[in-house]
Amino acid sequence: MPQGRPATVPDDGLTTRARRNAPLLAVHTGPGKGKSTAAFGMALRAWNQGFDIAVFQFVKSAKWKVGEESVFGELGRLHDQHGAGGAVEWHKMGSGWSWSRKSGSDDDHAAAAADGWAEICHRLAEERHDFYVLDEFTYPLRWGWVDVDEVVEVLRSRPGRQHVVVTGRDAPQGLIDAADLVTEMTKVKHPMDAGRKGQKGIEW
Which domain of life is it from (predicted)? Predict the structure, then answer.
């Protein structure tokens, strides 16, 4: 795609403007670092265009403070006070499910994930936001807490021009097939391979 131009243009009767404004479903998956980071980078661009942003984190603990959350909180306040960019909402589901299962049973976590997905469905139907980040959403799909077929159907049939980015390892094939943009992060080297732990400003 030299200079952002597609290699072929489909004969679908749509104008260039219509294709450019089509809602995007993106999936960032794979074992490498950077899936969420890339999604939040897209959200920054969307905020700058005045899009209403909604982030739903499905795995990280409600006590886990990530740098992006702090930044988007400030951007949301900037919008509310001065009209810059777009509105921002940030939601965390559950109490931390993948890296440290410290509180609640699997049933509790599954119920929280289902409730979170139900809220997203409601918002999609209302066209409440312009840009959604469903961070680490592949995990509740993989664990069977949220039905993959239902997710694919809802995302495929969502109304309006709502963009959705889903992150997490091992994205199910049905979600990959439904997506417009799929990126697989592949690890080549990682500091942890040499025994180094996560670093401030890099991992959080």
Answer: Bacteria
Q: Which amino acid is at 66?
A: V
pTM for the full predicted model: 0.88
Q: Which pair of structure tokens corresponds to residue 118?
A: 């139900």
Note the pLDDT of residue 96.
Answer: 45
Q: Minimal CA–CA distance to 61: which of 112, 8, 119? A: 112
**CATH, residue 88:** 3.40.50.300
Q: Which residues contact 91 (CB under 8 A, 6 or more apart)?
A: 54, 55, 56, 57, 116, 119
pLDDT at 177: 98
What backbone phi and psi angles, to 5 degrees, belong to 135? -80, 125
Q: Does any domain span residue 194?
A: no
Give SS3 for 92.
Answer: strand
Of the candidates 195, 193, 167, 196, the one whose C-alpha atom is nearest the C-alpha of residue 179 is 167
Kindly state whether residue 80 falls inside one of the protein's structural domains: yes
